[in-house]
Structures are given as C-alpha cells and as structure tokens.
Amino acid sequence: MTDDDIRRMVNEVFIESFEIEPAKIKPEANIFMDLGLDSLDVVDLVVALQNKFNVKIRSDERVRDIRTLADLQNFIIALRNEGAFTQNG
Amino acid sequence: MVKRVTTVLLNLWFYPLFVIYTLLAVPAMSLVVILSFPGTWRTALKRFRGAIKVYGNVIIKVLPFPWVRIRFKDYAPQEKAGPYIFVVNHPAATDAFLMAVLPGEIVQVVNKWPFKLPVLGQFARWAGYLSVNEMPYEEFFARAVRYVEEGVSVVVFPEGTRSSSKAMGQFHGAMFRVALKTQATIVPVCIWGNKDIPERGSMVLRPGTIKVHKLKAVVFDEYKEMNPFKLKNYIRRLIAVELEGM
Hints:
The complex is a heterodimer of chains A (89) and B (246).
Chain A: H1 3-18, H2 39-53, H3 61-64, H4 69-81, H5 84-88
Chain B: H1 2-35, H2 41-62, E1 68-74, E2 84-88, H3 95-98, E3 106-110, H4 120-126, E4 130-131, H5 137-149, E5 153-156, H6 174-182, E6 185-192, E7 208-214, H7 220-223, H8 228-244
Parallel strand pairs in B: 1-7, 2-5, 2-6, 3-4, 3-5
Antiparallel strand pairs in B: 6-7
C-alpha cells in the first residue's frame, strides 16, 4: 500500500462515513474547524479508520496532536511504516 | 445623539427594574415550589420550570419595552406540546433568556458561566439545567435522555460559544445523539438582532428588535437514516438558511 493509497483511503472515510463534500477534503483542512467533526465524531472516525485499514489505533501523543487531514494521513502512513497493518491485520 | 439618549434611558430603566423584579420573583418562585407540596417532586419541578419561563418572559418582553422588542415567529404553532429538542444558534449572552418564548416545559443545556450568576445560576441548577462542560459525556447523555423520556423539552446551543454573527460555528453533536436515541422531534430555532443587547464584554443594552423564529419540526422519520454527524449538519443548514433571511 503506497502513501497515495493511504491518503486516498483516509479521504474515502470522510466522504463515506461523514458524507463530507469531496471539495472540502484538502490536506490542510482542520478536522474540527473546517470539516466539522467534534470529539464524539472522532470516536466514530477512529472506528471507521480501524475498519478501513484493519489496524488498531491507540490513543497516544501522536493522536492527540492531529489537527489537519494531512496530520491524520501522515499518522496512518507512520502506522504502516511501523508494521501495524501487518501485525494487527 | 438620540440613539445615545435612548441607550442611557433604556439602561437606567432596565437594570434597577431587573434587580427589583428579581428580588420579588425569587420568593415568589420559591413559593411556587413550596405550594406544590404535598405532591410529587416531578410536579414541583414542572411548576418551578414554568415559573422560570414566566420570569424570563417578563425580563425579555416587559422590562426593556419599548426600547427592546421581541418578534417571535412560530412556523408551526399547531404542533404538539413536546417534548422537543430545540436546537438554537447562539449569537449573544441573552439567548438563554429568550428561550422563555418557547412552548412547554423546558430545561437548557448551558455552559459553565450561567451557573455562576448570582441567584439565577442557583435557579438554573435547581431546575435541572445541564452544565455540559461540568459532567462526563455519559452522565450528560443519560440525563438528557431521561428528560426527553419524561416529556421535558431540552434547549441546546450546539455551537457551544457565542458566534456574534450569522456565520455559525461548527455544531457539537452530543444532543443529536440524544435525539437519535430517544427518537425525539427536533425543532430548529433562529435568533437574530441581540448581538448588541448587550454586546460581548459589555453590560450596556442597546435599543433594537430581537427576532426569534421557531422553525417547522423535524420528526424522527425524517432523520432516522442519518448518523449524528449528518444530522447535526442537516439541522445547521436549516438554521443557516433561515438566518440569511432574518
């Protein structure tokens, strides 16, 4: 799975699970201010990402620092690089 | 010049009356509760919440008249008495008082600061208003669900903080999860015209007309297929469209 595949799949989660207009899906979009998710939606987002990538996402420092879509995409890419997909998939 | 004089007159008139009226209303409202016994606690609470609405209606409609006028427009006055989840935009600090125009028994979901107001904060606590930032989400959810199931309407300002403009902030979805759980009817409500009554960071009231529009109810059948995220944005759009024309 390439970096671009991961970025595309993360975007799909926002479009499919939250029905956000594709035009709003930009790397610099703030997940809370621009895309309108709240703290409860983030729980749903984590579940959707776990299902999409077949990976376990734990709440750690990196998760708490996520603000933009690009931050989230890079976090998932980092999980792949750590072998988390293979280990938990 | 005329504007300045009317502003001074309004404030010289309103605030002393507000204090006197509140000092008289506090024992009267306490009496309402005392006279509810012997009876159930539920009956006492219902009467107390009713008394708060009467108090609020006098504050917003009588005391500042004729300098401040309330124009309440109800798009569906024939609808049943509730319970509803009233979803309201939040342009100013006085929004909570304006909710006295809404029908039925209501509690409000408020921030921390209204609970810190002298007397009124204690009344809000006794009436069972929910301080959303002072309780875990699970407790908030359980209490809000219980209110709706008991037939009490819940007023929520899902922006969480004042917007001061027609460009609303993003909505928080907690109350929409309550709606999906209870299958409650949602009523969008729009407020406009009070951002300077008083303006943010000031106590000075300025003359003007405040509009409150209660929109047509959105019943469970209309939103049952939506997830909380989609539902909150659907209701937000309904309010935004109405606000544009206010």
